[in-house]
Amino acid sequence: MAPFTLAVDANSSSAFSSELSNQKMQNLQLEPKKFFASVKEREEKPFDFLRLLFEGVIAGGTAGVVVETALYPIDTIKTRLQAARGGGQIILKGLYSGLAGNLAGVLPASAVFVGVYEPAKQKLLRTFPENLSAVAHLTAGALGGIAASFIRVPTEVVKQRMQTGQFNSAPNAVRMIVAKEGFKGLYAGYGSFLLRDLPFDAIQFCIYEQLRLGYKLAAKRDLKDAENAVIGAFAGALTGAITTPLDVIKTRLMVQGSANQYKGIFNCVQTIVRDEGPSALLKGIGPRVMWIGIGGSIFFGVLEGTKRFLEQKRPENQAHSKSE
């Protein structure tokens, strides 16, 4: 009887293993696919709003100033291309016109954007399901854009008026704009600015964060600054190309001054297409893609490097390093 008993046990074990294997296969088939990079692979740290806000402000301000200083001439050429009507020639003098006044706005605007984006992102990633991390990044980018827009728009208006030769200094530009158009003149094209920048911020940061998360999971390590820079360049160039028509509309509305050639966003689109053809909506796409691609590389490289530096300077991390 002993051999028979052993044979029965073996068959039962085989059948049981086969059943378990089939059950695992069914579970794998029923498991929903994840279309976005997972954010649960990393160890979650306690949510410290003030610390994230402070580090975001410092990192964002630093990255914004570095990018703006390095790429301002390309931005000036792009603005003059978009503002030119018909076959007007582009003046290549004074490519740094308005840089100092622009930095006075870029520094706080970049600081506010990242200062809002970082804590919002961390909070949303803890709130949303794992497979909706892209929605968290999109939402955080839009929130950061809204907060920064109150500084960005007046800065952009003054910068572009100076780039097109209307004023020779930022204080004079502000004074004359307010005198002729009122305080609302500093917010000329605000609607078109939001129409361009909210999708831009949301899409760019979402693409960057998703690619970065996916790469980190594949590499199973933290990324180097050069790798962050390459991902940032791709995200910036792609987003810049997609949003070029919105940028053209924003530029035309901001530089028209008190002439009021365009009555709003839709009238601006209709007028440009009627008078200059649909291709005019892609004016400046070359400099824009190059500027934002290079800018994305510099911005995200500096941003991540500064964030890592500030994290290493945290008291708890310094204490941990000393104990080792």
From TrEMBL:
Topology within the bilayer: Multi-pass membrane protein
Gene Ontology CC: chloroplast membrane
Residue windows of the Solcar repeats: 50-123, 132-214, 223-309
Residues spanning the membrane: 52-74, 95-114, 134-153
Key word Chloroplast present: yes
Pfam families: Mito_carr
Protein's cellular compartments: Membrane; Plastid, Chloroplast membrane
Similarity annotation: Belongs to the mitochondrial carrier (TC 2.A.29) family.
Protein's name according to its UniProt entry: S-adenosylmethionine carrier 1, chloroplastic/mitochondrial
Source species taxonomy: Eukaryota, Viridiplantae, Streptophyta, Embryophyta, Tracheophyta
